Amino acid sequence: MTVGERIKAIRTESGLNLHQFAQKLGLTQGAISLFENDKNGVSNRTITSICREFNVNENWLRYEEGEMHSPENEEEELGRLVKRLFASRLASFRRALVTALLRFDPDGPEWAVVEKIFADVTAEWEAQKAKESQPDSSG
Fold first, then answer.
1. Residue 36 contacts by C-beta under 8 Å, 6 or more apart in sequence?
2. Whole-number pLDDT of residue 69
3. Which one of 8, 35, 72, 134 has the lowest number of neighbouring Cβ atoms within 10 Å?
4. DSSP letters spanning 30-98
5. pTM above threshold 0.90
6. Element at 23 (helix H, strand E)
7. How far, in Å, CA of 137 to CA of 115, rounded?
8. What is the Cα–Cα distance from 8 to 55, expressed in whole angstroms?
């Protein structure tokens, strides 16, 4: 696979069209198209930008060595997930819920309530999953 093909794989996996991908990198749609078709070389600066913006392993992008994505630590994963969540619809329930949770005092009593709700929901979900996996005995 060429560098251009790897760039296209990153863009496709990200669910972005040429224009959207180019915007995230501060480039033109035409430049991305030329890269993807291996008609132009990719600068070190562009490779660095792609790796940073899309959490791509630079050795994979340059030489197809290792995995496509760099391993994330917990903080990086959380940041990426929050960024993705907040990029969604402005008035979504998910966004409002996370915003409300983030406003809680880290040592406040609200977290005990949230932990109880989470434990109850998890237990109910696991019970439902176990029930669905049991064979039907009505036959």
1. 4, 5, 7, 8, 11
2. 87
3. 134
4. HHHHHHHTTSSPPPHHHHHHHHHHHTB-HHHHHH--S-SBPPPPHHHHHHHHHHHHHTS-TT-HHHHHH
5. no
6. helix 18-25
7. 36
8. 15
CATH fourth-level superfamily of 3-63: lambda repressor-like DNA-binding domains (1.10.260.40)
Residue 42 CA to residue 8 CA, distance in Å, equals 13
**Angle, alpha carbons 111-115-120 (nearest 5°):** 150
Nearest partner of 84 among 18, 12, 15, judged by Cα: 15
What does the radius of gyration of the chain's CA atoms come to, in whole angstroms?
22
Domain ranges of the chain: 3-63, 76-133
Bridge partners, residue 69, by sequence: 56
User: Residue 55: which region, alpha, beta or left (left: phi > 0; alpha: psi -120 to 50)?
Assistant: left
SS3 category, 27: coil
For residue 36, count CB atoms less than 10 angstroms from its CB and return exposed for 0-12, middle for 13-18, buried for 19 or more: buried
